[in-house]
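Sat 14:20. Reprocessing the chain from the morning session after the first attempt stalled halfway. Input below, unchanged.
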Amino acid sequence: MGKYTREMSIQLLIDKKKRLEEAGENRFPQRSDFSDEEVCAVKAFLGPWPRALEAAGIKEVRNDDRKRLNSEKRIRAKRRRTEAKKVQKQAEKNTTKGEQ
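Finished this time. Tokens:
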């Protein structure tokens, strides 16, 4: 096809989604539905495949709260680990005193 643009890449995805729906397939367009050249163009202009589908309005935009939630989850896990280490050290200290 030659030179691609951002708009052409978006249109490729939209057209493929329409063709899939017309064929009775209820799924998102996949990389395997396109030529290597088309996939390269889509990814070059729109980023990773899931972000490209979002840019074309095919897939719902992901919730960026996930980063915050993952960060909070890691912090809670770290606190649990450090608390468990404190308890373990205290238990070791108590058993050492009992042996003397």
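Helices lie at 6-22, 36-46, 49-55, 65-99.
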